[in-house]
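Lecture 7 notes: from sequence to structure.
We start with the chain below.
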Amino acid sequence: MIGGTGKTGRRVVAGLRARGVETRAASRSGETPFDWADRSTWRPALAGAGAVYIVPLDVSPSPTPALVEEAVASGVRRIVLLSARGVDVPGYFGASYDGNGPHMESETAVRGSGVEWTVLRPGWFAQNFDEGVFLDGVLSGELALPAGDGAVAFVDADDIAAVAVAALTEDGHQGQVYELSGPRALSMGAALAEIEKATGVRCVYVPADEREFLAGLLAQGMPEDEAALWTDALRPIRTHREAVVADGVRRALGREPRDFADFVRDAAAGGAWQR
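Predicted structure tokens for the same chain:
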């Protein structure tokens, strides 16, 4: 499990262990040391593994091809890769995006590995509202993003993990690319309204100018490349590309994906937005 302590990784670990599958959570802070920047940690983390779930770094050039090569040499027979929606679509993240970014480098490596593979392409996570990049805005009462009036078919990270667990442990997923989303698209304002309805926590969505948003990130000290990446990642919301409802959860699991309201109910029960 490469990236075993992240949003999807820790859920995949829990899902595998619930099935009684011996699982190793590898990350810089996990029980098994793994550091993308230290290749001496790769082989010990992979030793003896029959299958691996990879959460790649979104950097170019991607280190994933080298890791895939190491995994195959270590005897891994099945790879499940976390990718992202739109990575193969030129222009998805702006006019300069040619459809050949680091996620596609990772996908190409996995497809050409010679072992069984499955690729997961989720859209925006519902969990961005309670444990991710939207949380501070929600708690402050104002979420300002350059997302216009776009809507998002937010996918629950529990569904992503469930698909990953199935692909790691079951037959029938080899060579599949699963586009993952929730069952309906919501505007940012509608998503915040659902949180308010369940919790009483009120937050206003404010459509921000893209250039002003980027300048604000830079003023806060965010590195230029990271600020540009974050700003570009929001563009598909504004252009309504993230509103598309995909069928990957249904194809992989034989059921409908969890609704955003289900996520809100469970997150609220866990005290996610208590100030």
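Points to note: Residues 224-238 form the longest helix (15 residues). The two ends are 33 Å apart (CA to CA).
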